[in-house]
Amino acid sequence: MSKPNTVSQALGEIEKAYATILSKLPLTNEGTESTPKRAAKALVELTQGYFTTPCEKIGEGIFPHDGSGVVHVKGLEICSLCEHHLLPFIGNCSITYIPDKKMLGLSKLKRISDIFARRLQVQERLTEQIADAIEKAIQPKGVLVVIRSVHLCMKMRGVCEKDPETCTVVRKGEFANNQLLTMQYMAESQHTPKL
Ligand SMILES: Nc1nc2c(ncn2[C@@H]2O[C@H](COP(=O)(O)OP(=O)(O)OP(=O)(O)O)[C@@H](O)[C@H]2O)c(=O)[nH]1
Ligand SMILES: [Zn+2]
Fold this sequence. Notes:
With 195 residues, the protein is an alpha+beta fold. It is 41% helix and 25% strand. Guanosine-5'-triphosphate binds next to helix 5 and helix 6. Belongs to the GTP cyclohydrolase I family. One of its GO terms (cellular component) is cytoplasm.
């Protein structure tokens, strides 16, 4: 079957596929009548990262930078779907970069992480893709991306682990060579949600 290339095409086909899946379950509840439509809409929303690119989302959000220092943003929420089970993994991402001649608008860091999170993923690739996109956009001296998350496929099924946390780290440029700097920002990246 050819791959749908527009959202509306995808919606119709996914809705039909969900109706087939539900027809195989011994459902007795009437509340599921519109479920194929809703579930299709949800899946398209959760995979909207396939329908956009970092370049498109960053737009005009790159600015000149002429100082020294480090940019560190933590607590960027990650909501993604594991590519093996189509179950969510949810957590947070911290991005640290050492700018050279350019810097990114802060919101663009969230937009970049969302583009790749809203695809079917493994956490390792997601972490790598975020770091690569930042490197490509602004050629910083170094990038460090840390994601901590909980995979529901480990919690709700299979091994049914009560409190699993997965941490993935990607170090580029100066972070790849500097253990101390990496450790400093790894420690900083621990996110305590605030009310
Ligand atoms: N490395 C990596 N593994 C993941 C990620 N998300 C899910 N997995 C793992 O992918 C593996 C899939 O292994 P399989 O043996 O094919 O699947 P499974 O039978 O569901 O495995 P169990 O969960 O052990 O029952 C499991 O170990 C999952 O925990 C991820 O982001 N990164
Ligand atoms: Zn999984």
